[in-house]
Amino acid sequence: MGEDIDAANKGVRAWGQAGAALVLVPGLALGLWWWGQGAGNYDRRKPPTCADADTAKTPGHASGRDLCEALHRPGLDALLGIPGREVRTVSGGSRSFRPGGTGEAIVTPTAKVEFEGYTVTLDAGYGGLPVGRTARLMGDTVPGRTVLGHPAALYSDRTLQIRFRLDGGDSSSGPGVPARVLSVATDGKDQGDSFELSVWRTDGGFLDDAALLRVAETVLPAVPGWSPAG
């Protein structure tokens, strides 16, 4: 995988004035927006904050800023097993859609924290698939998995690498690095609302699952809409 990344980097250099982003496919458009935001957000003299994160949300749901503030917390580097690693960029945004093209728009918030070599995202989904069904579809082989008493699914996904010319030329895409994903129901009833943590490494390696679970157990209770199991 390291060779694949090197080859991709060489391809970007060959394009000259070009940009690149690694995103999970469901958040493709927002991932490209993140890339643009992050490029201007990285300043070693000024620690990144969630001040510019999106506050749009529907009643009872989290916003992009809510997710950003829950995820961008002191000690996240230690939870990930990379103590002392500097945060490069943080962001929080949202996308919206109308089911069937009509009715009230559903806002889907998302946030990202990027370290050197590591990227962590947190998404909130409302009215979607129950986590138990996600576990079956994505091949989680541990039956009845839970996080803090909430139904959960743990599986692997793959990012999509986008390379695009900043002068308006044609873009290209291809397989990116693998990601480890943990989806957790917002409550113990698993009715379709969930939070999803994703982590990927630029070297193509996987984050230890125990570290991903530590992040979830620390971060998710701080997100608006999380209901203690009971």
Automatic annotation (TrEMBL):
It comes from the Bacteria. Keywords: Membrane, Transmembrane, Transmembrane helix. The chain crosses the membrane at residues 14-36. The keyword Transmembrane applies. InterPro entries: DUF6215. This is Secreted protein.
